[in-house]
Design goal:
heterodimer; A: mainly alpha; about 0% strand; B: mainly alpha
């Protein structure tokens, strides 16, 4: 009988497909939500009319004016189409160039721009999964890896603590994102990001920790970081911040 | 969604992570192939989340999800059997493949044999063996899932194992 039970237990090797499991999780919560919960800042759209108006001057000859208008409309159409592309699509590079131009013009900090970029790439990965575009998946993963590293670098260079804490809260509360980090070979990049955020928050805490409890928390958090447990350190820091 | 709603979502997210593999495996062992298993499992958690967010007083969420899964597989059999009746009357009988080729490649031959043997058992026997031996659920919890007394479950486990042995002996001949 023991052998039979052992054979039954051997069936534990049956597992669901990881990508399917993550996608299903999104769909389960989406089925009850009327609005998406993930706080993605929508990509700001370029005012194409403004671009055309600026370039178009009344002194041009008619023929040249019409052909220029046609070219500009074509470009505008391409830009509009590019906004809907995903990593791996031919016009995705155009979308990224557009986004980076917006960052340059926005006047926001490097951290804020990196956050927007990170959220956009995360949103792209979600779309790739929900549309089951297997061909785009490796590109989407690469994009979010790069975005994660970029965000980590921006955080390390940043002096503003508010940015860092907000990012930390968003990441911690976003179960879908945490699942991605766990399941999509993004562990290394996510560790770099958690490390960058934790180090910033530790630096802030070192300047402001006055009570014994705060000092103890600081010690625990540093210990966690020394052991490479950056996510746990982050959770502790956020809890301490709430207190 | 308000703060309370977000809290429930986070809780159910943990519940999902804890049970997705178990529920999937339970369903997979009872239905015909990965696609059907995925479809049913997805419905189980959608239904589970729907109930959970409306009423947090679910004492044993695991048992609750398994109950939904059991009922979902029963509905699946009813629809499948109806479809087979229609199919047989208008079309040549299709081969009833319990596992598609892709899954056969993944599962070892031995596992495939056991899976196939379990699928030949009575539905209730399948349930008790999977829940108790594969998912390590205590007899009392299995009884709660199946709405039967614990004594009955113990008898079913004994008979289920006996029938499973017969199935496996037949396959080895």
């Amino acid at each position: 009988m023991d052998e039979l039970i052992y054979k039954i237990k051997f069936l534990k090797q049956i597992e669901p497909n990881k990508e399917w499991a993550i996608l299903t999780k999104i769909k389960v919560f989406e089925s009850s939500d009327s609005h998406r919960d993930i706080s993605v800042i929508p990509v700001r759209r370029i005012s194409v009319i403004a671009v055309i108006s600026a370039i178009f001057s009344p002194s041009y000859r008619k023929g040249f004016a019409y052909s220029s208008a046609f070219v500009l409309l074509l470009v505008a159409g391409m830009l509009g189409f590019a906004q809907r592309t995903l990593p791996g699509d031919p016009l995705f590079a155009v979308k990224k160039i557009t986004e980076h131009s917006q960052f340059a013009l926005s006047g926001d900090s490097e951290v804020q721009n990196s956050v927007v970029n990170f959220k956009n790439r995360f949103h792209d990965l979600e779309k790739v999964l929900s549309n089951q575009k297997a061909g785009n998946l490796s590109s989407a993963k690469k994009e979010i890896k790069d975005a994660t590293k970029e965000l980590a670098n921006a955080i390390q260079a940043s002096a503003k603590q508010t940015d860092v804490k907000e990012i930390a809260m968003e990441i911690k509360n976003n179960q879908v994102l945490l699942s991605f980090f766990e399941d999509y070979e993004l562990k290394q990049e996510s560790q770099i990001l958690y490390k960058a955020i934790s180090e910033q928050m530790i630096a802030d805490m070192e300047n402001s920790a006055t009570t014994t409890k705060q000092q103890e928390t600081l010690k625990e958090v540093k210990n966690l970081c020394e052991n490479g447990m950056y996510f746990q350190a982050l959770e502790k820091l956020l809890l301490a911040d709430r207190d | 969604m308000n703060i309370e709603g977000e809290g429930k979502k986070e809780q159910f997210s943990f519940i999902y992570d804890k049970y997705i593999e178990k529920i999937y495996r339970f369903v997979y062992l009872k239905v015909d192939g990965r696609e059907a298993a995925e479809d049913i499992t997805s419905k189980v958690f959608t239904s589970g989340w729907d109930s959970y967010r409306k009423d947090e007083n679910i004492k044993n969420i695991g048992a609750f999800l398994y109950r939904i899964a059991r009922n979902a597989t029963i509905d699946y059999y009813k629809k499948r059997d109806k479809a087979k009746v229609v199919q047989m009357s208008v079309m040549p009988e299709a081969e009833d493949q319990k596992t598609d080729l892709h899954e056969q490649a993944i599962l070892s031959a031995e596992t495939e044999k056991v899976k196939s043997a379990i699928q030949n058992l009575k539905k209730d026997y399948q349930d008790v063996l999977i829940l108790h031996y594969l998912e390590d659920i205590p007899v009392d919890d299995v009884a709660s899932i199946m709405s039967r007394p614990s004594g009955t479950i113990r008898v079913m486990i004994h008979r289920g194992l006996k029938d499973l042995r017969k199935e496996l002996d037949v396959k080895e001949i």
